[in-house]
Amino acid sequence: MAVAASPEGMPLARLSQTRTLSAVRTWLYALAALVVLMVAVGGATRLTGSGLSITEWKPVTGAIPPLTEQAWMAEFEKYRQISQYELVNKGMTLSEFKVIYGWEWGHRQLGRLLGLVFFLPLVWFWARGIVRGRLALTLLAIGALGGLQAAVGWIMVASGLEPGMTAVAPIKLTLHLTIASIILACLVWVAAGLKERSDSLREMSIGSRAPRVLAALILLQIALGGLVAGSKAGLTYNTWPLMDGALVPSASALFVVRPWIENFVDNVVLVQFNHRMVAYAVVAFALWHAWSLSRTEAASQAARRARALAGLTVAQMALGIVTLLLAVPLWAGLAHQVFAMAVLAMAVAHARLSRSSQASKEKGGLQEAAPFSAV
Ligand code: HEM
Q1: Is 181 exposed, middle or buried (0-12, 13-18, 19+ CB in 10 A)?
Q2: 320 lines ligand 1 (CB under 6 A)
Q3: Which of 50, 270, 314, 348 could staple 188 via S-S, CB 3.0–4.6 A?
């Protein structure tokens, strides 16, 4: 029986499936871009000291900012009650307050937008049977992670509103940044997994766990970076490669706090040292991975991606060093944070594509692939 085909010779049913697949993928990548934007605005909120300017959590009604002078005065009055105002910003004018309020409101508003851009298309794709099975469950789990992230965001802000506190708790900031990174990683993983099987079949299987290990190392490094940012450890030891005159500071400086475990969060020396060491590990691993793939399958897509990824990690390390040497100016702190998201996204896409090429080889080809349920 004849099968209807497009001018390029592709069966029409398959062509429409390919288009739908590409629509879902585009939606997921758009969500990933919005997550990166939100991380950037969150970073600017932190670096401009704006994070505690809204002292309440109103997920729905908070979408409308103060619209009258009286409403602004009421918000300002609430801010004047907290320790950060008293100890850091005493004497701040209303117009200065409006600026810090704007950053925090913008960050929260982006969260609301992200929720809508996630759920409305999801319902549409689901109702039409485009998204179903394991993929649908995975997307729901990512949505739940988004809800958790909003709650952690508030728990983090609440930690900075405690009497005597002038900033949020570093560990909670780290958790907030890490969950954002996990959401980004999940979105990119699923989107890259929806790449046409025919594309990934052209790739060679790289048959190793290295890409996933690299992505995990980068995620760990992002969490350690969150601790550096949260404890303002970037304002100390602004030299490189030496730290306090040595490659490795003395054990007494690294473990000055008792009990020893608390140094990992509360001691700026160990916090910064860990971030430096894991950076070297990330870069060394990425270079080794690119080198070993280039040796065995130089012309493959995987080797090309691995080389690009190694370049990105080196650039990110250089940006981190500049950020440290300049004692965290706004532009460098922001660039370092946003670039970390790009490195993570690239590492996850590389890991996913390398895995799917392996999987499709194992399965024996395109015919057996089920794109909409493949996660
Ligand atoms: C692959 C390597 C690296 C990655 C993925 C990475 C990632 C990150 C991330 C995600 C943050 C948190 C940013 C924020 O929340 O605002 C951060 C902070 C920081 N990183 Fe890195 N980093 C890397 C290498 C380095 C290196 C080599 C240095 C310096 C030797 C460095 C210095 C800093 C400093 C000073 C901060 C604090 C910035 C602030 O207070 O806003 N980083 N890093």
Answers
A1: buried
A2: yes
A3: 348
CA of 153 relative to ligand 1 center, distance in Å:
20
Give yes or no for residue 230 CB within 6 A of ligand 1: no
Q: What does the pLDDT read at residue 18?
A: 77
Number of Cβ within 10 Å of residue 338's Cβ equals 16
Ligand 1 center from residue 206 Cα (angstroms): 30
| Cis peptide preceding 163, ω within 30 of 0 | no
Structure tokens at 293: 């793939």
SS3 state of residue 204: coil
Task: State the pLDDT at residue 19.
Answer: 81
> What phi-psi label fits residue 245: left (phi over 0), alpha (psi between -120 and 50 degrees) or beta?
left
Percent of the chain with pLDDT over 70: 87
User: Residue with the nearest Cα to atom 9 of ligand 1?
Assistant: 225
Phi first, then psi: give them for residue 327, nearest 5 degrees: 55, 50
Query: CA-CA distance, 142 to 213, in Å (whole number)?
Result: 21
pLDDT in tens, 111-154: 999 999 999 999 999 999 999 999 999 999 999 999 999 999 99
* Contact status, residue 47 vs residue 126, Cβ threshold 8 Å: no
Distance between Cα 276 and ligand 1 center (Å): 9
279 lines ligand 1 (CB under 6 A): yes
Q: Is the pTM of this model over 0.90?
A: yes
**Which residues neighbour 37 within 8 Å (Cβ) at sequence distance 6 or greater?**
110
Q: What residue owns the CA closest to ligand 1's atom 18?
A: 225
Q: What is the pLDDT of residues 40-91, one digit of tens each?
A: 999 999 999 999 999 999 999 999 999 999 999 999 999 999 999 999 999 9
Strand partners, 215: none
Q: Residues 228-272: pLDDT tens digits?
A: 999 999 999 999 999 999 999 999 999 999 999 999 999 999 999
CA distance 198 to 277: 40
* Cα end-to-end span (Å), the chain: 33
- If you measure from the C-alpha of residue 129 to the centroid of ligand 1, how many angstroms do you get, rounded to a whole number? 43
For residue 282 and ligand 1, the question of a CB distance below 6 A is answered with yes
